[in-house]
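Example: LytR C-terminal domain-containing protein.
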Amino acid sequence: MSRADYPYPDDEFDAAAGGDVPRGVHREPRTGWSRWWPFVLVIVLAPLLAFALVTLYTHQGGGDTSDDGGQGVEDTPTGTATSTAKASEPAGTKTQSAPPQTTTPAATVNLDAPVSILNGAKIQGLAGRQATKLKDAGFTKVTTGNSTGTLPASSTVYYATEDLQPTAQKVADTLGIDAVEQDAGKAGSSITVVLTSDPGA
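Written out as structure tokens, the predicted fold is:
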């Protein structure tokens, strides 16, 4: 049908479209930023996501491994061995060996030293019995007698010089006497035992 045969009057839809009349669905023209921001977002996020994945993979033990002939031995994390060595041995510290121990020479007991046993307890045969104990212990020069001087508070072993101290102690241990004293006046030239009671009683 031609426009001449169209029976209806013209309305707004029959008006010729001008340059400012929108056609179809009306949309505002897009700005430059709205067209480019998706690309910018991809460019920024892609490296960040890749870095995060690499970091996570590395921390979970998926880092590089050395080629040890197919053994698959994992590398020791960098700095671990050095840190352990420094912790166990401070820098500049040298291991010092313990000073040599001095051995104290054993006390020398002279079984040939003269030992005199004086009976001050007035017990018959006491000095002789104590002399037998010393001879059984290895002493070779043991004499007996009676004490005529002032008696000590308890049976005592006297020795004349410092070198006789181990021998006097041996005499005291053999007879069961506790008191051992250095007194050249009462010991004479060697060792003297003054009995005020029976040490074995």
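The domain at 115-195 is CATH 3.30.70.2390 (Alpha-Beta Plaits).
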